[in-house]
Amino acid sequence: MAPKTRPATSPPRSAKVKGGRRPPVKVKSGRDIPLLPFAVLGVLVLLTIGLIAWIVYNNRPTPGPATVAGIPCDQLEHTQVHYHAAVQIIYLGQLVNLAANTGISGDPSSPTCFYWLHVHPANPNVIHIESPADQTFTLGQFFAVWTAWNKAQGGPAEPLDSTHVATFTLTPGETLVMYIDLQDGKGPQAYTGDPKTIVLRAHEVITLEITPPAKTPPSFTFTSGL
User: Fold this and answer.
1) What span, in angstroms and rounded, lies between the C-alpha atoms of 130 and 127?
2) Structurally, how many domains does the chain consist of?
3) Tens digit of pLDDT for each residue in 10-68?
């Protein structure tokens, strides 16, 4: 009896593949990775950084005006020392008022700071001396503050010397005549020194008259409360 032959076994699956090897696994290249989400993310990051920078820039502390002739500009008016002096500028026989709000920076309705020497519109030609400490102030310091304040508004300098009074420059035929009235009953007294050194005193009236024509200094009355 002939021996039984063992049936041939089925070839492994790999044998069905040509060459007996599995086909290579495809790996996605970088070109197949979606780039749009990354681009959108990058734009959002840049926008966020820009927004933060804008907020920081616009909320940075605003530097206040520099101290002028030893007079700083403070956020609030001081009450420790508070008195008033008046200045009258006479040109061509006419009174020329000091600029309203001189020494008060920012919007007049919402000032950012007050120099210790300043002028309120409600009190024409009156210098308010408001300081945290008792010290001597001069007319020259006020004119320095006036100059700094005026230049900040885009205006000219306001010098004070023997040939200049604010924006007026004396011609060779003109002379600066000065008077000081301490309101002590003596009336206006002639002053011949340097106008910048005139000390500001309570209820003092300083007259700076450019002549000719010569004119008797006009009287000045401080309103109630000054």
Assistant:
1) 9
2) 1
3) 555 544 545 556 666 555 555 566 667 767 777 787 888 877 766 654 554 444 467 99
State whether residue 203 is helix, strand or coil: coil
Q: Is residue 220 part of a domain?
A: no
* Sequence letter at residue 25: V
Which carries the bigger pLDDT value, residue 211 or residue 35?
211
Residue 141 resides in a domain = yes
Whether the link from the prior residue into 23 is cis, omega within 30° of 0, is: no
Within a domain: 128: yes
Domain for residue 145, yes or no?
yes
Can you tell me the distance from the alpha carbon of 50 to that of 46, in angstroms, rounded to the nearest whole number?
6
User: At a CB cut-off of 8 Å and minimum separation 6, what does 20 contact?
Assistant: 14
Regarding pTM above 0.85, the answer is no
Rg (CA), the chain: 42
User: What range defines the domain where residue 150 resides?
Assistant: 73-211
